[in-house]
Amino acid sequence: MACKPIKPEPDLESAAESIASSFTGTSTSDEQLGDFHVSLQISIDGEDAGTMTLRLWPHIAPKTVRNFLTITSSGFYDGLTVHRILRGFMAQAGCENGRGDGVGPLPAIPGEFSNAEEARHVYGTLSMARSSDPDSAGAQFFVICNDGPPAWSLDGAYASFGQVVDGEKTLEAIAAVPVARNPEGEVSVPLKSVVIVKASVLGGGLSDAKPVVAPAREQDSIGWPNTVEVQTLLIAVSGGMLPSENTLAQAEQRAGELLLLAQEDGADFDALVREHSDDPVQKGAQEPVGYMFANEGSHPKQGQREVYDQGHDFQMKLGELGKAYQEGTLTAQQHEFQEHALQVKFGRIVRSKTFIPRSQRQALADRAFEMKVGQVRLIPRDPARTLEGFYLMKRLR
């Protein structure tokens, strides 16, 4: 059904002016700002695309919430477009000229940045756009439409101030709009007209409303045939990527002997891994670490946030080691040893927490997807496919 822009009636315009005045003055305290929420009625190419309901966080960003409520109640957003869409990141709106360089009706506000868990940029988070100046936010805002590093990198650097609590179908419809390349090369210009038909300030803080959850998409689902989990035991071959004294024949013989042990009734495959694997990520680990593979087109989010956070710590510690070596407080041997230990530790986290795209470890993943749960196989060394040696593999799920 076609959806024409809705113009406020005269009495509603007066009410909006009154509300805007109350937000800019002192009659509404920061605490009372939590008694309001905002709805955004959206159309796409003139067709009704539904409404997003936004809960606001004055306890995290009171100046930002007051600014947003003031601008919304003035009617400024009515008829403006969503001018920038990145399917894997966010959708941005609130620019009076639709190009992204508008300044808005009010002076810029100071950045209210928080590293609190509640303020993280996740699916459905409402946040303020700005320039490189941290205190340059005005009227433009964006909504996160996909979890991942692009969104998480904004934590503590952009002012998140609310959350979509209803209208995930509308958010998904916006995110799915086809886009073209802008003059700077970013593929984010909507090829359909996405319009904020009406932005309304409504009573009620929606404190009990739960954030929207990204709808399950086929490429994001977890479970066969999209993902598999395997345990592996590597017998390395000399001359390969890993240090080893095994000749090709010795490695093959040893792998064959271990295969027979692994296929015995009641065999403890994990115990064999702990004792015999040449994989540095598995050596010394309290629990042997295998692989979780994601099929092509499948991008499970499991564990990605934890690995992302741990990655910052890993890079910081690597930097500290490099600095210590440069300053001469670490010898080259000490630096190499400690750097290797850090890499192994982080490698265990990555392997145990996240799914690896099938294409990154094609030689192993292809066989993993062919196996039945509980089956144990020997994967021969194939230098053309970068296998480090002979792998025993057991499919866990």
Q: How would you explain this protein's 3D organization?
A:
With 397 residues, the chain is of the alpha+beta class. The chain folds into 2 domains: 10-215, Beta Barrel (Cyclophilin), CATH 2.40.100; 227-302 and 355-395, Roll (Chitinase A, domain 3). The protein has 9 helices and 15 strands. It has helices at 10-24, 62-74, 149-152, 168-175, 248-262, 269-276, 304-327, 332-353, 362-370; strands at residues 36-44, 47-56, 82-85, 90-93, 125-128, 141-144, 160-166, 179-181, 187-190, 194-203, 227-236, 291-294, 356-357, 376-379, 389-395. The chain has an 8-stranded antiparallel beta sheet. It has a 5-stranded mixed beta sheet with strand order 13-12-11-15-14. It has a two-stranded antiparallel ribbon with strand order 8-9. Helix 1 (10-24) packs antiparallel against helix 2 (62-74) and helix 7 (304-327) runs antiparallel to helix 8 (332-353). The chain is elongated and about 80 Å long. The relative contact order is 0.12.
